[in-house]
């Protein structure tokens, strides 16, 4: 899997053809189970959803009073998120990122960026109190993992929480994504 690379076009094709088995129609049970770890007794957090797609958990956390920021290359996925929940939003370009769009709920507590995650920086999106990574690390190309983790680290506040979901399987039997990320590599990447 180390040499496997998916292009942006391949991810967009997955959304346009409905090949999105990774999308869950209901809240993720692991987020629900470990929510206390993510929140760590805090309220009103800024929570980041890398490669968010149209994750229903974004609205769930926003309804709890948190501010949610997500990023995905699929404009279709982001627009479907708002449409599926009947949430009005406004759309505007993102200064400094050519072709990028920011879709923000009119209530202001959900802001989704349509661009490459690698185009983001703390200067654009600020820093976060928590990150819910339920499919980003296992979706990024294996050769980009260190770049991804460096970006995530730069977006995190000093005392932030990072809740990560990976998958265990024999990588010789499945080409990915999701890509196999062994626990030893998670520890090496995140410390």
UniProtKB/TrEMBL annotation:
Give the domain of life: Eukaryota
GO cellular component terms, semicolon-separated: cytoplasm
* Keyword field contains Metal-binding: no
Catalysed reaction equations from the record: S-adenosyl-L-methionine + a thiopurine = S-adenosyl-L-homocysteine + a thiopurine S-methylether
Just give the chief location class: cytoplasm
Subcellular location(s) per record: Cytoplasm
Record-given protein name:
thiopurine S-methyltransferase
Give the UniProt record's GO annotations in the biological process aspect: methylation
**Sorted alphabetically, which keywords does the UniProt record give?**
Cytoplasm, Methyltransferase, S-adenosyl-L-methionine, Transferase
Which InterPro entries does its entry note?
A: SAM-dependent_MTases_sf (IPR029063), Thiopurine_S-MeTrfase (IPR025835), TPMT (IPR008854)
Family affiliation:
Belongs to the class I-like SAM-binding methyltransferase superfamily. TPMT family.
- The UniProt record lists the EC number as 2.1.1.67
One MF term in the entry's GO annotations? thiopurine S-methyltransferase activity
| Top EC category | transferase
